[in-house]
Amino acid sequence: MAPFDRPRTGGSARSVATAGDTWWYAAVAAEAAGSFSARIRIRMRRACLAAVLLLTVAYAGLVLTATGRRWGDAALAGRLAEPAVARFLREHPSLRGIGTLSLVLAVLLLVAVGALRKRYALTGAVLGTLATALVAAELLQRYAPGPRFVDASGAAVQSGFPGSASVVAAGTALGFIVIVPHRLRAVVVGLATLWAAALGAYAIASGRHRPGDVIAADLLVLAAFAALVALLARKGRIRPAPRGSLSRRRLLVAVPLVLVAAAGLGVGLYLLPGCLPGPGPVPAELPRIAHRCGQALAAGTGAGVAVALLALLRHVDLDRGAAPYRLASPVPEDPFPEEPDHEIS
Question: Which residues sit opposite 157 in a β-bridge?
């Protein structure tokens, strides 16, 4: 049993193994009571359940309630009340194509990094997790109970809760947590998260998605990758990372990411009570405030999801598994072998 997977007080005893038996002994060590792998597995399982709970609350509040739907409609209408945003989108019509191209390039970059580092199994696990989150988003859009949305012409449109493009962006950003080395994790994931937040802001400003669609996509991706890390811990494919002080390059990315999360959530929650439309006529300034509130909450949630997962895995190395559980020398033979024909007289 590796030093970092030794059980705490009250843990299970070490089992007898034969030379070369590695796979089952690794599983036993990973599941030892109080071991490092078991603690991380429980931690990530709780994080997955918390993300699912928050996603359920967002769905109930923003889709099933009339107030939440009116707030989303007000946020979409408020983008037209921002002259600077409307003028910028009108003068740069190619931003939509650039956003789609950046998604494709980001996924290809994720695969290329995994292939160059020869982490084929981890890369496949990340792509499988991303595909699972995308399928879950499509199923929620098609079959989740809720009201029917219509466009300006009155035609029914499919719900965008959660947003598929936002799922791909957030999933690619969090996928680098598993692929890149531990020393570069904060820098790479921080930059990728800021890029994903910019795509989410553009999706809201262009009217393609409501703020709740982007928020739900971030929570769905957090649940999916927390479940992936819990599975890796269950298989004994994690180990403790060296504990050291934060370097300057990590701080240059971590500090802005934390500021975006804190400022976005703080400003959004501060503006939210004043931009909830009632059953009567909507005030003229309410859509603009709702749009700003939705942008702040979406940016804060995206950054907060990345900060939470990085904090949970701060001292966890996902780059490779623990040291192999192989006995260093052959198992000695029993000096008193049992004779089948021996009888006790």
Answer: 149
Q: Which long-range contacts (CB under 8 A, 24 or more apart) does 101-107 make?
A: 102/195, 102/199, 103/165, 103/168, 103/169, 103/172, 103/199, 106/169, 106/172, 106/173, 106/192, 106/195, 107/168, 107/172
Residue pair 255/70 in contact by the 8 Å Cβ criterion: no
- Regions of the chain with pLDDT less than 70: 1-34, 148-158, 244-247, 280-282, 320-345
75: which 2 tokens?
A: 């946020």
Report the C-alpha gap between 211 and 177 in whole angstroms.
25
Residue pair 163/213 in contact by the 8 Å Cβ criterion: yes
Q: How far is CA 294 from the centre of its chain?
A: 20
Whether 137 and 163 have beta carbons less than 8 Å apart is answered as yes
The token duo for 285 is 């300034």
Return the SS3 of 240: strand
Distances from the Cα of 237 to the Cαs of 40, 107, 328, in angstroms? 11, 24, 20
Asked if the peptide bond before residue 147 counts as cis, ω within 30 degrees of 0, the response is: no
The predicted-structure confidence for 251-266, as pLDDT tens digits, reads as follows 777 888 999 999 999 9
Q: Residues 301, 272: contact at Cβ < 8 Å?
A: no
Residue 131 main-chain phi, psi, to 5 deg = -65, -40
pTM of the model: 0.81
Q: Say if CB 295 and CB 211 are below 8 A apart.
A: yes
Report in angstroms the alpha-carbon separations of 178 from 2, 173, 237, 312.
Answer: 22, 10, 11, 13
- Candidates 148, 145, 165; CA nearest to 156 is 148
* 337's tokens: 């072998």
Residue 149's φ and ψ, nearest 5 degrees, are -95, 145
> Which two structure tokens, joined as six digits, stand for 244?
């050291």
What is the rounded CA–CA span in Å between residue 254 and residue 249?
Answer: 9
**How many other C-beta atoms lie within 10 A of the C-beta of residue 96?**
14
Q: What is the dihedral of CA 238, 257, 69, 284, to 10 degrees?
A: 180
Question: What span, in angstroms and rounded, lies between the C-alpha atoms of 168 and 215?
Answer: 13
